[in-house]
Amino acid sequence: MKKLNTFLLASTCIAGVYAMPAMAQDQIADTQAEQAEADSNEDAVIVVTGSRITRPNAAAASPITSVTSDSIRAQAAVNIEEVLNRIPSIAPDSQQNYQDSDGRQRIKLRNLGFERTLILVDGKRLGTMNGLDANMIPTSLISRVDVLTGGASAVYGSDAVAGVVNFIMDNDFEGIQANANYNFYAHQNKPGLVSQVASGYGFNQPDHGLAVDGGRVDLSLTAGKKLFDDRFHISAYVDYRQANLVPYSARETSGCQLVEGAKDGPLSCSISTYTRTGYVSPRSGPNNGNVYVNNPNGTRTFVPYSTALAANPYDGYSFQRKSERWNAGGFASFEISDAAEIYSSAMWFRDKSANVYPARVYSSTAYSDGPYQVSCANPYMSAAQATTICGAAAGSTTFVPIELRYRFTGVPDLEDRYLNQGTRITGGVRGAFAQGWSYDIGGVYARNKMTMSWAQPTYARVNNALNVVSNNGVISCANDVANGCLPFDPFSANSSVNNSALYNYLIQDTYGNSTTTNTLYNGIATVQGDLGTYGIKSPWAEEGVAIAFGAEYREDQLRSHADALWRENVSDDADRYLSQHVWEGNVEIQAPIAQDKPFADLLQVNGAFRLSKYSSNPDTFSTWKAEAVWAPIPDITFRGSINRAQRAPTLVEAFQGSNTSYGRITTAYNDICAPTITGTVIGPNGQPINTYGAPVASRAACAATGLSDALYGSATLLCPTDVGCTYRAGGFTVDPETAYTKTFGVVLKPRFLPGLVISADRFLIDLNQSIGYNDYAYFSRGCAETGEEFFCSMFVRNANGTLSSTPTSNPTTGFIRQGTTNYYKTKSHGWDFQAQYALPLGGAGRVDFDFSGSLTTLAGAQDASFLAERNCVGYYGGAGCGQFIAKWTHNLRGTWTTADQFFSASLNWRHLGPLTRTSNSGEESLGASPDSVRTTFYRIDAYDYFDLALNFRIQKGFSFRVAANNILDKTPPVMPNSYDIGLSRANTISARYDSLGRQIAVGTTINF
């Protein structure tokens, strides 16, 4: 038993790679206490993420990385994304920083997308895959976060293709605890490349020197109590978080959006025609199409528009979004007897955030109603302006079309508002029965509601505000006065300073709303037993076979609704109600083969099997895993696993696949079986006549599309020149995608060097039948080049072989298909390394070292059998390489703690490997060619960040901490055209690099 527990701690607790400095010695002491208790208590239970079997010898056969609560405090993390972004196996993300985000945080393991990472709280699902927000989990209540990389679908169900992130909550808290954290940025703005380019446009730049901004506060209060001889436990928490806006204009790296118009070409700034001097273009008369701006000197005259008079469209955008979040919840359990314990938990959150945009009168091209209309007698126009706009009609009451754009001054920014609200309730009963058996029957109800509120000036109200008259020198609206119409003057520079009343009228004083609600109903039942009590065990093992049976039901629902304003101004999407449910059953087994034997200190095999039946698919599919652990001696343990994981389509993916719509292919597409047009000749009557070449596809491929041989190469197959061919989107049953995940590793714990634990694991994730969207061009090329049924069956021809039909008639033939379906392969291969070393210093205390690193050797895809496999490791910028995956990343933390535990200091080193642009990769599969090689902006060097955390334990119930992340204030890399490169924003990669500079944090924990 002792050896089993020792290995368990080595293989799981090694991953406490970011142990909190002040708590490091206590944590080790607690671990030793747990070990001693486990050694003396045969019934001790240690739960390992990745298994439904809870027993001391549940040794982890797959690598698990854990982040402790003390580490979270050391990082001064306010949001979950900040906790996880430093783990090498997790693709960095920062939804709280993206201007165009909805604020919800998802998690992406191995760069395989959030749809393939399952998020659990205490072993149960957080919510629906489409609606969850990991930031609803309060950081102050987390006991630890376990990250299991590799397939876990056989244990937890679909979605766990890339792995599982399991948040273990502190639901056994007793007493009262208050946590307070405040952090802010202290960045030294210095002149740089962006400010040099922006200065040529006259754009305002941040003051050089120290910028202190971005304040964030995180306050939490937790209380817990045990009653009735500790059989009843209840605890509750409330958490408040708030973050201040940091605009792009606050950093020298984002003073404008850099644009590089051509490879290695000159740099410029993105500019906007929405200026405070206005933008005016007549759409009739002698100056039709000419573009003017109001004279900046304030006179009512026009000057020709030039880029020198343009505005910075991004100066008000959010580098850190303004947000406010409340979390509240609680945990309760009551042990009736050993046979029955009732448990429950509840989590609630409400998060408000916004993306800001300059207050503007939009171009009429943003609407479908045509140009604005202005009276040639508009009293705001001077005589010269009226002549420019109206020509001979100047001064008359004639209305003429006009294009206007205008940016307001002194008016609050327009906001895209996001309100995310959610509730998660769990409950159940668990206990022991018979001899060696236990059960857990429970469920999850989770509901996440997101309301988007967007607004823009309405077309009708802009026209109303333009239609003005003068009554004895008082200018007022001619129409819509009852609704508060105010006159709009677009014919003078800065004419609408501080005119919030006008802008409120233009946007109707309200916002259009679109609401999406995702709901999860999840019931789970597990029964597990130790068959060793019945003598079912290996003759060479001390412990018997453990087995678990499970049954599960899940239903996902999605409802969406939009109000009239949203439909009028944003999108006319129909209301939707989507639903999908699944029945699952699984079995899991752990079988120790040998223990405490020569060359077999531990030999154990594990396995699991699951059957799933989704309502969206007619077939039943299965997943399984097989694992083995072998420790020839206590110092060395080998482990390996293979998982067949399958992911069913999400509710939205299933809908996208099945929902049918039709349209015209308006590009220069031609049927691959029609003749190619090689040119034209002049006929005898002077008319042009096409000349033809051979079709793109072979006869065999065309036969596979259902075309008769007699029509091969016939000109009758050519798409009509006036309307083109037809496509049908959707109508697919999207099948589960399948991943084979293999991990092989070794754990070293040498007796000659006490306190040292090292692990190295190889991971191989091969995903087949990936779910994704492919258009008609993908299937056309695939059929032409391979002749395979998967591609060629997408051609549904009319009786005459053509691919043209009337889309509005919902045709059954005469189209090529496209849409969300299954296609080819995605891969992720590499190595994970972890190490932990505790060095006692006697009276000087101790030093603890924690290390976690990841070497990625393959991260890419092969989108079709006829396309090359691309490997994006170490590359960025194109060919599907948008995740910024460095070959090597690591974290190394060293912590010194005094012997009396009064003080500790911790220094963390974060390393991000270099990245090269795909154009300079030398790989044709990544789009590299001699003509694409760049001499500028083709490489991002390796980055190293250093974080310092200091903790003072004033007394047992009170500690104070201060931390500095990116203590050297390293400036992030700068790249032009950042919005065209993956999740890059503000000329850099916000999630991967510390884009806002040095972060200072102070915090305290008080226990009452």
Plain-language structure description:
- With 1008 residues, the protein is mainly beta.
- The chain is 11% helix and 44% strand.
- Strand 44 and strand 45 form a beta hairpin.
- Helix 1 (2-12) packs antiparallel against helix 2.
- It is globular.
- The two termini are 38 Å apart.
- Mean pLDDT is 87; it is low at 1-47.
What is the count of β-strands? 50
Helix content: 10-25%
Specify the biggest β-sheet.
22 strands, antiparallel, barrel
* Content of β-strand: 35-45%
Defining key terms:
disordered N terminus, 50 strands, 22-stranded antiparallel barrel, five-stranded mixed β-sheet, mainly beta, single chain, 1008 residues
Summary, kept brief:
Helix content is 11%, strand content 44%. The radius of gyration is 32 Å and the shape is globular. The strands form 10 sheets. It has a 22-stranded antiparallel barrel. A 5-stranded mixed β-sheet has the order 1-4-5-2-3.
